[in-house]
Design a protein that fits this description.
Blueprint lengths: L13 H15 L15 H8 L7 E18 L2 E7 L5 E7 H4 L1 H10 L5 E10 L5 E12 L9 E2 L5 E2 L3 H6 L1 H7 L1 H23 L3 E2 L5 E2 L10 E5 L4 E5 L4 H9 L4 E9 L11 E10 L3 H20 L3 E3 L5 E3 L5 E4 H9 L9 H8 L9 H12 L8 E7 L15 E9 L2 E8 L4 H16 L10 H7 L6 E7 H9 L3 H4 L11
Parallel strand pairs: 3-5, 8-12, 16-17
Antiparallel strand pairs: 1-2, 1-4, 2-3, 4-5, 6-7, 9-11, 10-11, 12-13, 13-20, 14-15, 17-18, 18-19, 19-20
Helix pairs in contact: 6-7, 7-9, 10-12, 11-12
Protein name: Lysine--tRNA ligase
Cofactor: Mg(2+)
Family: Belongs to the class-II aminoacyl-tRNA synthetase family.
Length: 505
């Protein structure tokens, strides 16, 4: 089978056209540059583990077949060198000599193989005269021809690593993973953290379920939803902003310890700690409280740190250490505000007084509780570096939360702050359907006043609650933010393929 260079490549960069021409030539000569299978016998890791102790110049007669991406190459006369890299970044040197593979084969290698290609070689395992573990090839074959050249990365004279621009790293994460070990490591760290969280819940006898991504009503959080249209039902649907109301339905149904790790979608801004599409962990435990969920949250985060990094004192990307060990501090939201502004502030403080303390304009539909939360963020929130539970929030801004058992005007809710940002939240859940209906109706008034993030009244959820929901504690934590806390990276680095604005828009 043969084909010609795509006409669309006529104006392409020279390297792309040259590589496309090589592909065409290979096909015309009967060589498939993308074979379906190769006689691989060993991975690069297996070769390094088994033969890593060879002395310089030592040779074996053991034949192995390995494959990897060509990341370094040096062609010199009758002896060529290449370095193959596997998906984890492990590398192995390959040597191709005219004596071992033949003059014609070596000539074809020089003509056909470029940096970035996937290459298969079979040959003896040896150690070079310089002590480099190598394969002395007797045969080779292209495993996949790369039509585009790899991006250039290098170390400047001052020792600075020159790599991909941040925008390129995010838009073309596959390139980032090819050239930057930290990008590949983040994928593995993320997977290991998710596995640790699941193990924690399974060991605690929680059941993992999946709840709808498409919902007829958006609920469970205060956020703007994404909307879509379902042709089959001719109805408007929403991408979920939270799984909460369906997980609570499961608790009503008798699944008394339940959790979910899955995607949420919020039609809001994107910055270093917010993404419109993100992964959320939510869990609910019958007969638990927000105190129960505080203990569980601390335990699961500390377990994840131990499982993935071997310690509860993690090293961040800037080289500093962050201590997640031991018990964590708890503070009261209103007490923290009072200390920050030098004046007592309570749930009964009038809205106008809170606005004066904030000293900035706020939307008219913000109630006193919402203003108090904004005041907290401005004066305290971003200063909470060590893990800190901020407890007991305003009632009028927490419509799904049980009223505090001893403090009027507040609810049993905490937010967990780490390194100055909010990581998780938990409630003693509101389970009285009559009070819940009243809270939803109050939210409807807030929405009518202009709050696009206000919750809607969900009759189906209220009906479920009317069958009796046991007392429960519930918690939610952004997985992407947990990775931020454990690694020190921004949210777009912790999400493997983050949503980014199109270049042509």
């Amino acid at each position: 089978m043969t084909d010609s260079i795509d006409p669309a490549l006529d104006d392409a960069p020279e390297q792309l056209r040259v590589r496309a021409e090589k592909r065409r030539r290979l096909l015309e000569s009967g060589i498939d540059p993308y074979p379906v299978q190769l006689p691989i016998t060993s991975t690069i890791e297996e070769v390094r583990d088994k033969y890593g102790n060879l002395e310089a110049g030592e040779e074996t007669q053991d034949i192995v077949g390995v494959a990897g991406r060509v990341v370094l190459a040096r062609n010199a006369g009758k002896l060529c060198f290449a370095t193959l890299q596997d998906g984890a970044g492990r590398r192995l040197q390959v040597m191709l000599s005219a004596r071992e593979v033949g003059e014609e084969s070596l000539t074809r290698y020089k003509a056909d193989v470029d940096l970035g290609d996937h290459l298969f070689v079979s040959g003896r395992v040896i150690s070079s005269k310089r002590g480099e573990l190598s394969i002395m090839a007797n045969t080779w074959a292209l495993a996949s021809k790369a039509l585009r050249p790899m991006p250039k990365t290098y170390v400047a004279e001052d020792g600075t690593e020159i790599g991909l621009a941040e925008d390129t790293r995010v838009r073309r994460r596959y390139l980032d993973m090819i050239v930057r070990p930290a990008a590949r490591e983040m994928v593995r760290v993320r997977a290991a953290v998710v596995r640790s969280l699941r193990e924690y819940f399974h060991e605690a006898d929680f059941v993992e379920i999946e709840t709808p991504m498409l919902q007829v009503l958006h609920g469970g959080a205060a956020a703007r939803p994404f909307s879509t249209h379902m042709n089959a039902y001719d109805t408007e649907l929403f991408l979920r902003i939270a799984p909460e109301l369906f997980l609570k339905r499961a608790v009503v149904g008798g699944v008394e310890r339940v959790f979910e790790i899955n995607r949420n979608f919020r039609n809001e801004g994107a910055d270093s700690s917010h993404s419109p599409e993100f992964t959320m962990l939510e869990a609910y435990e019958a007969y638990g409280t927000y105190d129960t969920m505080a203990q569980r949250t601390r335990e699961m985060i500390q377990k994840a740190a131990r499982d993935v990094f071997g310690t509860e004192i993690v090293t961040l990307s800037d080289g500093t250490e962050y201590d997640l060990s031991g018990e964590w501090t708890s503070i009261s939201l209103y007490s923290a505000i009072s200390e920050a502004v030098g004046k007592e502030v309570t749930a009964q403080t009038p809205r106008e007084e809170l606005v004066a303390l904030l000293d900035e304009e706020v939307p008219d539909h913000y109630g006193p509780g919402k203003v108090a939360e904004v005041l907290f963020e401005k004066t305290v929130g971003d200063k909470l570096y060590a893990p800190t539970f901020v407890r007991d929030f305003p009632e009028d801004s927490s419509p799904l939360t049980r009223a505090h058992r001893s403090q009027p005007g507040v609810v049993e809710k905490w937010d967990l702050y780490v390194r100055g940002f909010e990581l998780a939240t938990a409630y003693s859940e509101l389970v009285d359907p009559v009070v819940q209906r009243t809270r939803f109706e109050e939210q409807a008034l807030v929405a009518a006043a202009g709050d696009a993030e206000a919750m809607v009244l969900d009759e189906d959820f209220l009906e479920a609650m009317e069958y009796g929901m046991p007392p429960a504690g519930g918690m939610g934590m952004g997985l992407d933010r947990l990775l931020m806390a454990l690694t020190g990276e921004g949210i777009r680095e912790t999400i493997t393929f983050p949503l980014v604005k199109r270049l042509d828009s």
